[in-house]
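ok, trying the design again with the full structure, not the truncated one.
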């Protein structure tokens, strides 16, 4: 497999987009970071929000031009920073195949393009620009001058300048300092969904809850269980980022290393591998995408039910108690 190309500052022309009208649709975690970073890089950027958006006052207080959703009609670059499940309706409302203007659509996640929830006007350039972290960190790193890496993919290049524009946008949010990783909409979508479901969000939260519950059932006090699980996750995650999984194990005690490597043989067996393949298969086939959109159309009843159950978990409740104590101290 050919390694992904990585672009840096020398590969980008930061002035290429300075005269373009850029509209960031939405002002959540990523939308805010994109808008502020682009503005501070000298770009002509505005924010488009619904009339009843709770973010309107914040946009104005941070000295950004505020527009209605219809502002995308006059924009050269439109950045989709609203939730994934809202994007198809937004696109149907404000874009059409009859539009002959040459504009670029920028997505922060590949889901809607890869699974065909949005089929863009064939006259548009279509780019993916996905930072490797939350919006707050993207903004903080930009302010600090370090930058956050990101994925970049091109799905439509009518102008012949989509890659150049994408690199310029990536540089304007600070990614050129950390690395702009070339990928495809397919690889970003499948990798992102599978990684967050099985490890970064679902796997980490689920395994933490399961280990905590097992301790409780075997007579370990809740405080002990919390300190042996949740409390140490940040430190160990930092060690994995710095040294890799095996390197992290090398940096703990011999007792922890021996027991952990031995237990991994029991935990991560063929049955788990089959379950991981099943989850990946459901994502790749589009079944997860269908379930997501169906639940979104009904107001997310399944999501709310599952989240309520997670809130009732003993690990969650114990964590909340400790968080409260730390705020008081």
């Amino acid at each position: 497999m050919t390694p992904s190309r990585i672009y840096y500052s020398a590969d980008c022309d930061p002035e290429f987009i300075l005269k373009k009208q850029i509209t960031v649709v939405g002002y959540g975690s990523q939308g805010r970071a994109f808008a502020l970073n682009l503005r501070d890089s000298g770009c002509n950027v505005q924010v488009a929000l619904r009339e009843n958006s709770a973010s309107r006052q914040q946009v104005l207080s941070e000295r950004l031009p505020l527009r209605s959703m219809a502002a995308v009609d006059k924009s050269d670059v439109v950045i989709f920073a609203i939730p994934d499940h809202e994007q198809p309706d937004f696109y149907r409302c404000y874009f059409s195949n009859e539009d002959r203007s040459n504009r670029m659509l920028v997505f922060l996640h590949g889901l809607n393009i890869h699974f065909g929830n949005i089929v863009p006007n064939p006259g548009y350039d279509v780019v993916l620009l996905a930072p490797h972290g939350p919006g707050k960190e993207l903004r903080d790193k930009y302010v600090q001058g370090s930058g956050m890496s990101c994925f970049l993919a091109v799905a439509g290049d009518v102008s012949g300048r989509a890659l150049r524009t994408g690199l310029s946008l990536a540089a304007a949010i600070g990614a050129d300092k950390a690395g702009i990783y070339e990928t495809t909409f397919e690889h970003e979508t499948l990798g992102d969904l599978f990684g967050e479901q099985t490890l970064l969000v679902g796997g980490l939260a689920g395994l933490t809850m399961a280990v905590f519950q097992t301790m409780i059932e075997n007579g370990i006090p809740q405080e002990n269980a919390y300190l042996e699980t949740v409390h140490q996750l940040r430190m160990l995650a930092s060690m994995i980022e710095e040294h890799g999984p095996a390197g992290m194990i090398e940096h703990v005690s011999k007792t922890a290393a021996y027991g952990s490597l031995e237990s991994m043989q029991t935990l991560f067996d063929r049955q788990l591998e089959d379950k991981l393949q099943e989850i990946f298969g459901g994502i790749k086939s589009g079944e997860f995408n269908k379930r997501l959109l169906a639940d979104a159309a009904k107001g997310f009843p399944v999501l709310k039910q599952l989240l309520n159950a997670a809130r009732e978990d003993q690990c969650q409740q114990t964590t909340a108690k400790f968080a409260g104590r730390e705020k008081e101290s």
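Keeping the full-length input from now on. DSSP finds 15 helices and nine strands in the chain.
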